[in-house]
Design goal:
The chain is an alpha+beta fold. The protein is 48% helix and 20% strand.
């Protein structure tokens, strides 16, 4: 499996804020540096503004393992430890020393906070890595399936395009094949939204004709290329040529190699998104490209095999046609041969000349149409022509006559056969060459009877019907027969020729027959080999190539069959165990992937040794295994098997010369009637496995109803949220913001409420988590904005503030879309305030600054929400156009409580900071008169809370008076 490490931790875990959070728990003016080095998270650090270089150097020395000063001057606190696979160091410089107990307490607090944050980031990184690996594995399975499918190549390429599109942005995608011997390339597949060019896979294009092609440059370069095409051209010294398509904002191309030689390339590109592709995408596309090349090679090999089989079949058909023709010829020759044999026998068997001629007529009648047949012979003196035999349906009697210019005389005088129809006969009579006697025939054929090369007679056949014509072949046949009748010597020579022809024909038939048998044997061998190859592919598709164990496909089939049998009560209950090796990546990183593979094989053997007949162990990929217990009567039996597996895995094993002690986390899912598919059981066992990992690893956990209920609740809530978006079931509730000095309402905050069809009005706390995880919260925000702006257009007193999530600041068109919605509603932009958090500002500071300045230019001001709970630093307040700070209600709540004096000090500091910068302040969560009085005394200008008014729907908020 390809292990693609994350280059940065997920956004949900903010490692950069660690130093700021630690600095808040130290005296004002303290400097803090936090450094970490982790295999997944990489090297990184967090520090507060204004940290001196000496403190950074000190933290780096701690990370390198050099002796720490230990805070010898009392104003320095440092700490360094290993957190699992990560190394962490903290260095803090204080304006004045702390007491020893305070120093120890702060050290403990700092370690807990940093450890928890690092662990959370590691977990998120592992989860993301597993997801990517799963997607990649599924894609490779699909590519392998396509290679063995019966689909046409065009459809296979189209589906490969879809698979790559599931892994990264691939709307613009093409595959090119390269022949380094011919120095040509073929565009096998080409799909592009802007470039109208269409590829023809059958066209070979010489490389020399495309000197300015980036694709050619990639094939010559032989290494992956990524970035804007303009930069890549400069890097490779390629001139711009619009004939090869428009420039792309981001372009990623990877070569495909066969036996170390570049044999093609795969390219994806984006025209409108710079930096669309990452190093992860490059590594992923390189890996997938080799699998695609393998799949294409297999597909081409399959097509070539089918072509060869088709060609061989066509050759056999042609050979069969030739053989059939030879058989017909042989049959004709055999008929002729039998006729000749009979003619040869007639001179010995015929009792009389009349019988001889009659038998001769019968023989000729078997060879051609001879209903009208006669034999004419020249008399001994040569003056007459006689007819010793004549059978004719018109001229019943033929009497001897003088030698005149008749048809028979014409053949005798010329010594050549004559094939004549009425037209030929009429033409010969007109020229005076002959004179017809008897009934005029439609077609007449006569051949000379030769003796010592001299014509002494004629054999003639004739037809009176237009439907019967004699052919040249008939003429030849009759001439051949006449030769045998004409003389014994000629007959002998003809008989020898026929015997030789017969032997040659037999030899050719035998040779053809042997060739056909050899071809048939070869074809059967090819078919058998193809069937064996298909069986091997099926086995490979259902088994893991490393361990030889069944894979996910095989296991899911067995699980589905077991569910069906259990429902039919054909078997008892069963269970599924999901195993994931603990810290397996450490083995790969320390002793290598080959040793890791050896360890996986041994783990598979050990699991199989523990199982009973009827159980199935499968490798799902990476270090994940799954077991189907075919006879697990209850969860106690399943947990006992899990314990035996863990005990067996815990025994030491020698891998690559090292003694290893593997362990695993096991999740157990017992069969329940609610399960419809094996995938459902495997999913729940996987969830239980993650609980086992969270509780310390090297243990097993049983999937229970609590886990199912929570998963079901979140799933139902997401479904309700999607339906609510379609039904526009969200509305803003408005809470007043008042001037603390006069009590006058100066504005309202629009708070999100969900009018749930069952639970009534829900606040964001009930569904915001699901909305953010699913990405639906942005759609909800726009629905609420539209209604809030409509209320602004009707209620023209004071301003309205809306909450803007950090997700909106990731969108380039947020400001334009917001201003357009304001214009459509008829509300005044100067009466709108947006409430943002510190995370939204610092996540992408340049983008956030541009957006705030765009909105401020149209009169829309920004309020910083929940101030005091995040960084609360002067550095970013000075950089961004912030109109007012909203002091978090957690600090306001402690203003009238003597047990929380720190709240008063913090609020006083915030107000002083705001006054220095000329920024307004709003106290949130004001619920008592005492809190309001303290805020007025400290100089806070505005307040918001239940003391002044609860959030109300739009209709009720319009009629509310001043506070």
């Amino acid at each position: 499996m390809l292990d693609i490490a994350l280059t940065s931790p997920p956004r949900e875990v903010d490692l950069a804020a660690l130093a700021g959070m630690l600095a808040q728990s130290l005296p004002t003016g303290s400097c803090v540096v936090v450094c970490w080095d982790d295999e997944r998270l990489g090297k990184g650090s967090s520090e507060v503004e204004g940290v001196p270089g000496q403190l950074r150097t000190h933290a780096a020395a701690l990370m390198a393992g050099k002796p720490a000063t230990g805070g010898s001057r009392g104003a320095m606190i440092d700490e360094c430890w290993n957190e699992g696979e990560a190394r962490v160091a903290i260095a803090a410089r204080l304006p004045e020393p702390l007491t020893p107990s305070s120093r120890d307490a702060w050290r403990a607090l700092a370690r807990r906070l940093v450890s928890a944050t690092i662990a959370s980031a590691q977990a998120e990184a592992r989860i993301e890595s597993l997801r990517k690996s799963e997607r990649l594995q599924q894609s490779l399975y699909e590519i392998a399936d396509l290679a063995g499918s019966g689909l046409e190549m065009a459809e296979v390429l189209k589906r490969i395009h879809g698979i790559v599109g599931g892994l990264m942005s691939a709307a613009n995608f093409y595959i090119v094949l390269y022949d380094d011997v011919r120095d040509t390339m073929r565009f096998l597949y080409f799909a592009d939204r802007l470039d109208p060019w269409r590829a023809d896979a059958s066209i070979e294009t010489p490389i020399a004709t495309m000197p300015n092609s980036l694709t050619v440059a990639l094939l010559r370069h032989g290494h992956p290329l990524r970035g804007a095409t303009e930069l890549i051209r400069k890097q490779l010294a390629v001139d711009l040529d619009l004939a090869h398509g428009p420039d792309a904002a981001d372009w990623l191309g990877v070569p495909m190699r066969r036996e170390g030689r570049v044999s093609g390339a795969i390219v994806v590109q984006s025209y409108d998104q710079p930096d669309c592709y990452t190093d992860e995408d490059r590594a992923l596309l390189e890996f997938v490209a080799q699998h695609i090349l393998t799949a294409l090679d297999r597909k081409h090999a399959q097509a070539e095999l089918e072509r060869r089989v088709h060609a061989r079949t066509r050759e056999l058909q042609q050979a069969n046609q030739v053989l059939q023709a030879e058989i017909i010829e042989r049959q004709r020759a055999e008929r002729l041969q039998r006729a000749l044999f009979r003619i040869s026998e007639l001179s010995f068997t015929a009792e009389s000349m009349e019988g001889f001629y009659g038998d001769l007529h019968a023989v000729v009648g078997e060879l051609l149409y001879a209903r009208n047949f006669y034999i004419a012979m020249v008399s001994g003196d040569g003056g007459q022509i006689e007819f010793p035999y004549s059978v004719d349906e018109r001229d019943i009697v033929r009497r001897p006559r003088r030698m005149i210019h008749g048809l028979s005389e014409y053949v005798i005088n010329s010594g050549r056969a004559l094939l004549a129809d009425r037209e030929v006969i009429t033409r010969l009579e007109s020229s005076g060459e002959l004179r017809h006697h008897g009934t005029l025939a439609h077609c007449w054929l006569g051949v000379p009877l030769l003796r010592d090369g001299i014509a002494v007679g004629v054999i003639a056949v004739q037809s009176y019907s237009r439907d019967i014509d004699f052919t040249v072949q008939d003429q030849k046949l009759l001439t051949f027969v006449a030769h045998h009748i004409g003389g014994a010597l000629a007959r002998k020579r003809s008989q020898d020729h026929l015997r030789a022809a017969h032997a040659e024909l037999e030899h050719r038939v035998d040779a053809r027959t042997r060739e056909l048998e050899d071809t048939n044997r070869e074809l059967r061998a090819q078919v058998s080999e193809r069937m064996r190859a298909e069986e091997r592919l099926i086995h490979q598709a259902r088994h893991d190539h490393l361990t030889g164990l069944p894979n996910r496909i095989h296991l899911l089939d067995r699980l589905d069959a077991a569910i069906a049998e259990t429902r039919r009560q054909a078997r008892g209950p069963f269970a599924v165990l999901f195993l994931d090796l603990d810290r397996f990546k450490l083995v790969n990183d320390s002793v290598g992937h080959a040793a890791g593979d050896e360890m996986l094989v041994e783990v598979g053997r050990r699991i199989a040794r523990v199982l009973r007949e009827g159980d199935v162990v499968a490798r799902l990929g990476g270090d994940e295994f799954a077991v189907m217990l075919g006879h697990a009567g209850d969860d106690v039996a399943a947990e006992a098997v899990a314990a035996r597996i863990l005990a067996e895995l815990g025994r030491p094993m020698w891998v690559a010369g090292r003694e290893l002690f593997p362990s695993a986390s096991v999740g157990i899912a017992m069969w329940q009637p609610r399960y419809q598919h094996g995938e459902d059981l495997l999913r729940d066992a996987d969830a239980a496995m993650y609980r086992a990992k969270a509780r310390g690893r090297d243990r097993s956990e049983l999937f229970d109803e609590e886990m199912r209920a929570e998963a079901t609740r979140l799933l139902d809530l997401e479904a309700d949220l999607r339906r609510a978006i379609l039904a526009d079931a969200f509305e803003p509730w408005f809470q007043p913001i008042i001037d603390l000095a006069t009590g006058r309402v100066v504005g309202h905050e629009a708070l999100l409420r969900w009018n749930h069809e069952v639970h009534g009005a829900l606040s964001p706390g009930d569904f915001i988590g699901v909305g953010e995880d699913s990405g639906l919260i942005e759609q909800v925000d726009w629905l609420v904005y539209r209604r809030a702006f409509a209320w602004m257009a009707r209620h023209r007193e004071g301003y309205v503030s809306i909450n803007v999530s950090p997700r909106h600041f990731h969108s380039d068109n947020f400001a334009e879309r917001l201003l357009q919605m304001l214009e459509d509603s008829g509300a005044e932009p100067s009466r709108l305030r947006i409430e943002i958090t510190e995370v939204a500002l610092l996540d992408d500071a340049p983008r956030a600054l541009r957006m705030l300045e765009t909105l401020r230019a149209r009169g829309i001001l920004a309020l910083l929400d929940d101030f005091g709970t995040g960084f609360s630093a002067l550095s970013y307040l000075h950089r961004f156009p912030i109109h007012a700070l909203k002091i978090d209600q957690s600090f306001v709540a402690g203003l009238d409580d003597a047990r929380h004096p720190e709240s008063l000090a913090l609020v006083r500091a915030i107000l002083a900071l705001a006054s220095t910068l000329g920024i307004d302040t709003i106290g949130e969560g004001v619920e008592t008169e005492g809190q309001a009085a303290v805020l007025r005394q400290l100089g806070c200008t505005m307040g918001q809370g239940f003391l002044f008014g609860h959030p109300k729907p739009a209709a009720a908020a319009e009629s509310r008076g001043a506070a």
